[in-house]
Design goal:
This protein has 7 helices and 14 strands. It is mostly beta strands and about 350 residues long.
């Protein structure tokens, strides 16, 4: 007798009985080849009949000889990183613990802190991860399309960490978003320069598409300056971006409809009235030719021989400082100003 068997009452193994009125005790014919002859096999035969491979007579709760134990015989075969976990990590110091193992959360903490709970149900880690490591996720583009934020355009090529990791901290992942507005991830570069009328609730999709920021679909008819003629062919940046000290500055709500804000006034203010030069009185959006100019509406309507005179005969090229321009606005229109 060894271990706990020493403290076992004799009658436990050698039962007493009465036969023909005589009390007898059984010593022969007892089965003791296997532990299961006396003890109930709580493993129901999964690990064979040789209990001594893991247990000793000291106590069933003390496990020994576990190094060669075949865990594949259990309901939880060790795979992936589980193969390198110490037995005591799951089964306790004395290896007598029988941990729950149906779900990953039975052993592992919820790294996502309840962010993935939907309708009161927290999905098991195995839905996205494998036993090869938590860093290896099965959740890909196809799975992402079933979420409230489908990946399209440039978002398809964006790495997960760009949206789901804050401050480049790999321990601080974020999956629950209160809003899917573009400005939650992208800075609103137009906030201080564009009218609230067009920014709205900072929803970039009103003008931009997820394919690329440079693909702009904006209805210019909503502004006070509809695009006509040659303006239809002009790139947005030509009017709305200017360079200042090697930096690009946006111009939107401060931009007026004055032609001279974008185009140089080749007449150098000759037609400025009340501080504004209205090019549209003579020109159209199709070209710079003065197609709308009518000499009959000037102070000097053309009549008689004047109709055949070349324009430059009267409108000379003058020079003021370093400026050369055609003099169109003639102050003196008397005959003597041109004729001797």
């Amino acid at each position: 007798l060894t271990g706990a068997h020493i403290k076992t009452v004799c009658q436990k193994c050698h039962p007493k009985s009465r036969r023909n009125g005589i009390e007898t005790q059984r010593f022969t014919g007892l089965k003791f080849k296997n532990c299961s002859s006396c003890h109930k096999d709580v493993h129901r035969g999964k690990f064979g009949k040789n209990c001594a491979r893991c247990h000793s007579t000291a106590s069933f709760k003390k496990i020994s000889g576990i190094k060669n134990f075949n865990h594949s015989l259990t309901n939880f075969p060790l795979k992936g990183k589980h193969r390198f976990v110490k037995c005591s990590k799951c089964h306790g110091k004395n290896l007598n613990s029988r941990p729950k193992h149906k779900f990953c959360a039975d052993c592992h903490k919820d790294f996502h802190k309840g962010e993935l709970i939907r309708n009161g149900v927290n999905p098991d880690c195995s839905n996205c991860h494998t036993v090869n490591g938590f860093a290896e996720a099965k959740f890909g583009i196809e799975e992402h399309q079933s979420t409230a934020f489908k990946l399209v355009g440039a978002h398809l090529a964006t790495p997960c960490v760009a949206c789901h990791v804050k401050n480049s901290d790999s321990k601080n992942w974020k999956f629950k978003f209160e809003s899917f507005q573009c400005v939650k991830c992208h800075s609103n570069v137009h906030k201080s320069v564009m009218s609230e009328k067009f920014i709205g609730k900072e929803n970039c999709s009103g003008c931009h598409s997820p394919e690329s920021w440079t693909e702009v679909k904006f209805n210019h008819l909503l502004t006070d300056f509809p695009l006509e003629g040659k303006h239809k062919e002009v790139q947005c940046v030509e009017c709305h971006i200017k360079k200042e000290k090697k930096a690009k500055v946006q111009i939107f709500k401060t931009l007026t409809s004055d032609c001279v804000q974008c185009h140089a006034d080749v007449h150098f203010g000759q037609f400025k009235e009340n501080g504004k030069t209205d090019c549209l009185r003579c020109h159209s959006f199709d070209n710079w030719k003065p197609v709308k100019f009518n000499h009959e509406k000037t102070r000097f309507p053309l009549a008689g021989a004047h109709t055949n005179v070349n324009c430059f005969a009267c409108h000379k090229i003058v020079k003021k400082g370093n400026k050369r321009f055609v003099k169109f606005k003639i102050e003196d229109v008397t005959c003597a100003s041109c004729h001797s």
